[in-house]
Specification:
The chain is 5% helix and 40% strand. The protein is mainly beta. Strands 1-4-7-10-13-16-19-22-25-28-31-34-37-40-43-46 form a 16-stranded parallel β-sheet, with no helix packed on it. The protein has a 16-stranded parallel β-sheet with strand order 2-5-8-11-14-17-20-23-26-29-32-35-38-41-44-47. The longest helix has 9 residues. The N and C termini lie far apart (75 Å).
Length: 414
């Protein structure tokens, strides 16, 4: 393949017949490298991609499996065996939900299956697997435009992320499938791409991971059955992604999680049947959580832990197995809860534990039956209730052990 690329000029296409090519290749500016054949569907991706294989030789080679160039296109290849895939390590960390993994920035040096460094290019219809680092690595370079289009690829069983966007890159990452990768399905470090319509499942960490000052737009993705959160946000108040219109379900932790002072906007998502909260916040996070639907989660619809400051507006929280909104015991927690519908959760609509100051305005809080109160305000917490409708058949609308100021609320007993 490399001989064909070397012979090509800007605007040419190098058309590659099906087969296994034991080499690593470097693309040339403005050249298209495409596997031959129609776009018939195969088992994982396109059939032509499954039949046209670039094998990096594991440790017997240097550089990325494919190094992209400005204006170049890679279309329809399987890229595999670049570096060493460690199956024993993968199985160990999958079993422990990544809790024993070393904390490494996704932007640390490594050799990707397909590498885009400081260029704007197109990476399309490829299958990348069993790579010793990220499947597709996108790295910004200072004073260079880095806006690649990464679409319709399948990335799995790589020892980094499926796709990693790093260091100021502004890629468009859309309609990819990323599963069973060692870190996140799609990971971000100090980058702000558009992440649209991807499917991320079964990854050792989050389906989509966002950290280190990254502020991507994350829309229309499906993140499910990941070992940690569906979408996880962390590390610093300059980490400010927009997370909108995603489906996050059946993950082993939260559907969407914010931690370590991150400040995301979480809007109009659907989070359901996760093993912890639908949306969870902890360790100093300051999320704005607006217009989401959270239901049938094992814990709260929206759960907050110590030290967070949250704004919850217009969410619909129903049929969760503990509370609609839960505030866990801690220190220095603050929240404004406004215009939410919190309906038919198994225990309380809202539980406010010690260490919280919560303002609840114009919410609907209700449950058809059950013994617990609709709202429980524990000793050591403070809550203000104004203009809420509280409808229930439990022992009380609001049960007070802490400090409460309640003004102009409507209590409808059943």
């Amino acid at each position: 393949i490399q001989e064909g690329i070397d012979a090509a000029s800007f605007g040419d296409m190098v058309l590659v017949n099906a087969g296994t090519y034991s080499e690593r290749i470097v693309l040339k500016k403005g050249v298209v490298v495409r596997s031959s054949g129609a776009d018939a569907k195969g088992k994982l991706g396109l059939k032509r991609a499954e039949l046209t294989i670039i094998d990096g030789g594991k440790e017997n080679g240097s550089g990325a499996g494919v190094e992209m160039a400005e204006g170049a296109t890679l279309d329809g290849f399987t890229v595999r065996n670049v570096g060493v895939y460690d199956d024993e390590s993968w199985k160990k960390h999958f079993a422990t939900q990544g809790e024993e993994q070393s904390y490494e920035h996704i932007g640390e040096p490594g050799v990707a299956g397909i590498s885009s460094v400081g260029v704007t290019c197109t990476i399309r219809n490829n299958i990348v697997h069993h790579v010793g680092y990220s499947g597709i690595g996108i790295l910004g370079v200072k004073n260079k435009k880095c806006e690649p289009l990464v679409e319709k690829n399948v990335c799995y069983r790589n020892m980094g992320g499926g796709i990693g966007s790093m260091k100021g890159s502004k890629a468009t990452i859309r309609n990819n499938i990323c599963f069973e990768n060692f870190y996140a399905g799609i990971g971000h470090d100090a980058a702000s791409p558009k992440v649209l319509g991807n499917i991320c499942y079964g990854n050792v960490r989050a389906g989509i991971g966002i950290s280190e000052g990254a502020s991507p737009e994350v829309r229309g993705n499906k993140c499910y059955r990941n070992r940690r959160a569906g979408i996880g946000v962390r590390t610093g108040n300059d980490t400010q992604p927009l997370i909108e219109d995603n489906d996050c379900y059946e993950n082993d932790m939260a559907g969407i999680g914010a931690r370590e002072n991150a400040s995301p906007t979480i809007r109009k998502n659907r989070c359901y049947r996760n093993k912890l909260a639908g949306i969870g916040s902890r360790t100093g996070a300051t999320p704005r959580i607006v217009g989401n639907e959270c239901y049938e989660n094992e814990k709260a619809g929206i759960g907050q832990m110590s030290g967070t400051q949250t704004v919850l507006i217009g969410n619909f929280l129903h049929h969760n197995k503990t509370s609609g909104i839960g505030f866990a015991s801690g220190k220095n927690g603050k929240s404004r809860v406004e215009k939410n519908r919190i309906v038919d959760n198994a225990k309380v609509a809202v539980g406010i534990n010690p260490g919280w100051k919560v303002e609840l305005i114009d919410n609907e809080l209700s449950r058809k039956g059950g013994l617990p109160p609709i709202v429980m305000v524990f000793a050591g917490s403070e809550a203000t209730f104004k203009d809420n409708v509280i409808r229930c058949g439990g022992v009380a609308g609001i049960r007070v052990a802490g400090t409460v100021n309640a003004v102009n609320n409507r209590f409808e007993g059943t």
